[in-house]
Amino acid sequence: MFPFPRRKKLSVVLFTSIFDTEKKLEEIIYKLGFIIRTLVIFRVSEVIWLDDLKNKKNITRIIKDVSNYALTPPYGKKYFPIKRTLSKVGLIPPINIPSHVVSNDYVEGEIRKVVNGDTGVKIVNRKTKSVLVLDSLRKSHLTYDFYPYYDGYSIKFYDVTYLNKIKDIENVIIASRSGKDLSLVADKISSIYEQNGLTLVLSLIHI
After folding, report:
1. CA geometry: angle at 78 spanning 74 and 80, to 5°?
2. What is the pLDDT of residue 184?
3. What was the pLDDT predicted at 182?
């Protein structure tokens, strides 16, 4: 059974300084691949990157390009242009979200995400978001207006000063080694999530 999107929004706030020690593109993408895989395992809805790494001006471009590439179904990756930021994407571990777990041919009942009109087997209307396979022999399908399963997360970038606004949000939890034992506040965290979703800030420097 494929996982569905979360009932409530789960946002994670990360800082670009997490790549402060990485010097080579291979090192950045290797770490970013691990981060992406972890985020999708927990079905994160949104990732907010706060740019506090001034000595790497292209870090936000790398994060955006690599994340979009990693979350795209295998048959859609051919539509990405050749660029330096994607030259080492082979280091990214498999991202086993539902839209990536598809067969090499049409299978009845399978729901496929459409990328640039491409289902991986057949070309359809470019405006179609996903299709439900009806007949594997005739390659027939039914157009879906939405993709029903968890399909990764959206990405936003802000200057590090945006942290001041995040702190004022009621459903924010700031991760810290000096924080409370999670086992003692698990019920409270669950209650906050069920009411308004959750925004988790992960940082070792700014908080």
Report:
1. 110
2. 84
3. 78
Rounded Cα–Cα distance for residues 94 and 36 (Å): 10
Q: What pTM did the predictor assign?
A: 0.90
Classify residue 53 as exposed, middle or buried by CB count within 10 Å of its CB (0-12, 13-18, 19+).
middle
Q: Which of 24, 11, 38 shows the shortest CA–CA distance to 92?
A: 38
Q: What is the average pLDDT across 163-179?
A: 82
- For 80-92, write each residue's pLDDT tens digit: 999 999 999 999 9
Supply angle C-alpha 77, 100, 107, rounded to 5.
Answer: 115
Give the integer Cα–Cα distance in Å for 92 and 69: 10
What is the token pair recorded at 155? 């990405």
Which structure tokens are listed for 190?
Answer: 């669950």
Residue 30 pLDDT:
95
pLDDT at residue 205 greater than cutoff 70: no
Kindly state the tokens that stand for 201.
């800030």
Q: Find out whether 38 and 97 touch, Cβ atoms under 8 Å.
A: no
DSSP H helices, the chain, are: 25-41, 59-71, 163-166, 182-196
For 93, other C-beta atoms within 10 Å of its C-beta total 12
Q: Determine the Cα–Cα distance for residues 157 and 18; give it in Å rounded to an integer.
A: 14
Helix 59-71 and helix 25-41: axis angle, to 10°? 50
Q: 62 is written with which tokens?
A: 């790398």
